[in-house]
Amino acid sequence: MLQDVQIDPLKKAEATERQSAAKAMEANAKAEAQRTQSAAKVLEAHAKADAQQRSIDAKLAERQATADMQAKAHQNKLAMENAKTRNSYLSDLLERRRVAAESTPQAVSGRLQGLFTGTA
């Protein structure tokens, strides 16, 4: 014969409460795992973006350095060309002044006089 087993309502409520608490803890653990995973993905994305930005910055710095060197080389070339032009102009000016000085009436007269006296 089977006896009717009576379940104590208090024990049943405690069991239900423990079961509910276990389910809540499990849900909390899953939610925490998802938050941790999401945070890890965000950190990874930030790290990747930072690395890309550093790479871009490095490339830009390299290009800027190259452009600066090219600009400086061009400035130096222009300065050398200007110096050559200035030197050429000064040489021409000095030559014209020398020729002009030799062509003055006094200079010509002195040379002619030297020719006749034998001191030229």
Tell me about this structure.
The structure is a single chain. The chain has 120 residues and is mainly α. It has one domain. The protein has two helices and no strands. It has helices spanning 9-102, 105-117. It is rod-shaped, with a radius of gyration of 50 Å. The relative contact order is 0.03.
Walk me through the topology.
Layout: H1 9-102, H2 105-117
Features:
120 residues; mainly alpha; rod-shaped
Supply Rg.
50 Å
DSSP summary, beta strand count: 0
| Whole-number tally of structural domains | 1
Q: What is the overall number of helices?
A: 2
Query: Quick one: biggest sheet?
Result: none
Which bin fits the share of residues in helices? over 70%
Order of helices and strands: HH
Portion in strands: under 5%
Unreliable runs, pLDDT <50, ≥5 residues? none
Overall geometric form: rod-shaped
Question: Structural class of the secondary structure composition?
Answer: mainly alpha
Mean pLDDT: 90
Report, as a whole number of angstroms, the end-to-end distance. Answer: 162 Å
Q: Brief overview, please?
A:
The protein is mainly alpha-helical and 120 residues long. 89% of the residues lie in helices and 0% in strands. It has helices at residues 9-102, 105-117.
